[in-house]
Structures are given as structure tokens and as C-alpha cells.
Amino acid sequence: MGYASWLYDAIIYIYALSLLFYFSDFMNASRRAKRIGAGLLIFVWVLQTVFLVTKLYANIGLPILSTFVYWLAFSWLLVTVSLVISRFFKIDYVVFFVNVISFAALALNFYSGTDNGEQYAVGQTTRELLYVHISLVLCAYAALTIGALLAGMYLFLHNRLKSKRWSQSIRRYPSLDTIERYADRAVIIGVPLLAMSLAVAATSLVVEGRLVLLLDWKVLTSFASLIAYIAYIYQRAVNNRPGQQLAKLYIFAFGMLILNLLTSSFSSFH
Fold first, then answer.
1. Which of 91, 151, 196, 230 has the fewest CB atoms inside 10 Å of its own CB, making it the most exposed?
2. Do 188 and 259 belong together in one domain?
3. Do 263 and 172 have their domain in common?
4. CA angle, residues 207, 212, 215, in degrees to nearest 5
5. Are 242 and 206 in the same domain?
6. Dist CA 69 CA 3 (whole Å)
7. Are 138 and 269 part of one and the same domain?
8. pLDDT band at 61 (very low <50, low <70, confident <90, very high)
9. Angle at 134 between CA 112 and CA 70, to 5 degrees
10. CA-based angle 171:176:180, to the nearest 5?
């Protein structure tokens, strides 16, 4: 446990230092600070990868899956996506805010005691289904989280441009069309993954004969979130709603996902 605690602290402190350099770039457009922050973030990713692989290897074949591993994988996935965005898409502010969310999730996970806390029971006949479900839903959450950040960025930039309040930081934002295009891509990736994860979850309940859990709060709010995203897609593709309205609908749909996560304690699912 001492070794694990040391590794927790190392990851958190290096991650925090990386965010400080990214914040310096955020405030003053410092290319040197950005390079240092990116280098530290890559080191954090390496440490997270080693730690996650070690945890997954230790849990191979066990009939349980801890929430600690679940949220560790979520944070690792966000860091991975942010590095890809930084390398290929050059949307600086998204990288910073994605990592703020990832850092918060990681810190809460490391120091909340979940490593020895809540666990998901995995039945022998449904173990593979649960692993597939968790893999899909983690990827969906990551994509939709980035999409929500882009939607928030769209509303902020639209408001600034409409009120003609210019600043040096505004010039570093991509265009509204670019933000909207990437938000759409996040939906294109996230919504099918979310739908597939829910399909796998429903299948596991049918296989286990626990059909009553299809009316569980977590299951119902998950499907409600999916319907909200489908409504966004419909308004985007069929009704051609303005970008500002679509961004608000996107954030509403993401808010339902957050509600789903925050109210998990009321659920009997998993």
C-alpha cells in the first residue's frame, strides 16, 4: 500500500504541475509553458498507463471490478484524448479544460478510498458483457465530455462576439464553425457508443433474468440521456437549428449524464 500511495502522490503532483504550466499558457500564450506542460502531461500518461495496466492485470479473472479501476480508466482515457487533440487538432483551451476534469476525477478517485471500497459484482456468465459495457460507456463518456466542453466554448465565444467584447484570448479560440464541427464529431463517436453500452447492459440483465432492473433509476436516466442526445442529432440534421440552440441542448443532454452519475447511489444496477 505504501508503494501505491507514493505513486498516487507522484501522479497527482506532476499532473498539478502540468496544469499550472498549461494555465500559464492559457493566460499569457506562452509557447514555452505549453511545451513544458505537454511534456509533464506525457509523463503523467506514462505513469497512469503503468498503474492502470498493473491494476487490470491484478484483477484478471476476479469476479469483481472496483470503482477505483473504473474511474482510473476514465481519467486515463481523457488524458489520452487530450494528447491526441493537442497533437493533431491544436484546440488549446479544450486540452486544458479536459485535463482539469481528468485531474479532478483522478484526485477524488485516489483519495476517496475507492481502491478498497465499492465493487461491481461480475457473474461468471455475464463477465464479458460487463467488461464490454464498461469499455463502451467509458469511451462514450470521454467523447461526450469533450463535446460538452466544446458546446460551452461555443456559447462563450458566441456571446463575446455578439457583444463585441474582444480580447487577446478570444483570438486564440477556433472559429464557431470549427467548434461546431468538432462537437458534432464528438456526438458521432459518443452517442453510438452510449447506445451500444446500454444495449449490452440490457442484454446482461436479460441473461441474468433480472428484468426488473430495466426499470432501475440508473437505467432509466441512462436511456433518457440517450434520448436527449438523439433529440440533439434530430434538431441538428433535420430542423437545422442555430448553433447556439444546439449548444444549449448539448449541455442539457450532458447534464442528464451527470445526473445519472451523481444519483448512482440510488441504483441497484451493477
1. 230
2. yes
3. yes
4. 115
5. yes
6. 17
7. yes
8. low
9. 20
10. 140
Separation between Cα atoms, residue 179 and residue 174, nearest integer Å:
7
Is pLDDT at 80 greater than 50 in this prediction?
yes
SS (H, E, C) 216-236: CHHHHHHHHHHHHHHHHHHHH
The total number of structural domains that make up the chain: 2
**Are residue 147 and residue 50 in the same domain, yes or no?**
no
* Residue-level pLDDT at 46: 93
Domain boundary among 120, 154, 185: 120
Residue 60: the pLDDT is 65
Q: Answer yes or no: do 110 and 172 share one domain.
A: no
- The 10 Å Cβ neighbour count of residue 87 is 10
pLDDT of 57 higher than 60: yes
pLDDT in tens, 88-134: 876 767 788 888 888 888 877 776 655 554 544 444 445 556 666 77
Q: Are 193 and 139 in contact (CB under 8 A)?
A: yes
For residue 96, give its domain range.
1-120
Location of C-alpha cell 458546446: 151
Show which of 104, 120, 136 is a domain's final residue: 120
What global pTM score does this model have? 0.71
**Lookup result for grid cell 440483465:** 205
Residue 245: count of CB within 10 angstroms of its CB: 13
